[in-house]
Design goal:
Keywords: Signal. This protein is of the alpha+beta class and 189 residues long. It has one domain. It is 20% helix and 42% strand. A six-stranded antiparallel sheet has the order 6-5-4-3-8-9. The chain has a three-stranded antiparallel sheet with strand order 1-2-7. The longest helix is centred in the first third of the chain and has 16 residues. The N terminus is likely disordered.
Length: 189
Amino acid sequence: MSPRMLLSVALLLASALSAYPLGAAQATGFSIQQVELHEQAGQILLNARTTLAFSPVALEALDHGVPLTLVFHAQLRRVGSWIWEDSLLDDQWRCIIRYRPLSERYEVYRLPGHQRQEFVTRDTAIRALSELTDQLLIARDRLDPKSDYELRLKVSLDIEELPLPLRPTAYLRPSWKLSSGWTTWPVKP
């Protein structure tokens, strides 16, 4: 192939690639995919499946040993309640994912507690992090069988838990502001 032909192919390829922003193929952001409630021993338990698509910047930080903390925030309210009425539940659960370079393992912690899971690949660790299983929500006897309720749930990256030198950058860059936003799910006692 002649140099002129190579140059025109390179220019054509460069113009085609510039039409797509970097990272367009890899969407980022968090979302709540599915929520299931079930009762066990008089307690309402929550199972939730989320999609956690971290930004390339967050993944790079993780791969360099920076722990990332996620916050699952849940609120349970009576349908039609006034804004000043208290929620039956307003709780947060924290999870941490971190990479240990010496052992070449990813760890997932559910707080409070020190129980951890280890994973060989980042994708399997993120998949495990994205599932909430049998999370205690509320005692069944606190729900009025004559009322309908709604569960609001969101998951977000906690910038406040990043190392101090990284926080100013995280506050200013949208690639660190990862949140699912609130999703609402009906609850019938």
